From TrEMBL:
Pfam families: zf-Tim10_DDP (PF02953). Keywords: Chaperone, Disulfide bond, Membrane, Metal-binding, Mitochondrion, Mitochondrion inner membrane, Protein transport, Translocation, Transport, Zinc. One of its GO terms (molecular function) is metal ion binding. It comes from the Eukaryota. The twin CX3C motif contains 4 conserved Cys residues that form 2 disulfide bonds in the mitochondrial intermembrane space. This is Mitochondrial import inner membrane translocase subunit.
């Protein structure tokens, strides 16, 4: 109910932040589960063995690199799209 008193931009920012945090938690849970399922196989001891630890680190590193690469490609695509749109707008205005 406190959000009803906030200016609309603050409400949008709060909703966006909340949405981003939920997305972060979703991604975190997804990668944690994937790496755990791929790397942890020995449940006879409470200790994490070196192979499991190494596998989990490589799994996370691969995920981070993939995420960064996708982000870079998306940014490149957005820039190309924006350039094309700007050129089309400029051509239409000429």
């Amino acid at each position: 109910m406190a959000q009803a008193n906030l200016p609309s931009q603050m409400q949008i920012d709060a909703a966006s932040t909340s949405s981003q945090f939920r997305e972060f938690l979703s991604q975190y849970n997804k990668i944690t589960e994937q790496c755990f399922m791929a790397c942890v196989h020995d449940f006879t001891t409470r200790k994490v063995v070196n192979e499991e630890n190494s596998c989990a680190l490589h799994c996370l590193e691969k995920f981070m690199k993939m995420t960064n690469r996708i982000s870079q490609r998306f940014q490149e695509h957005q820039m190309t799209t924006n350039d094309a749109l700007a050129a089309a707008t400029q051509k239409a205005n000429s």
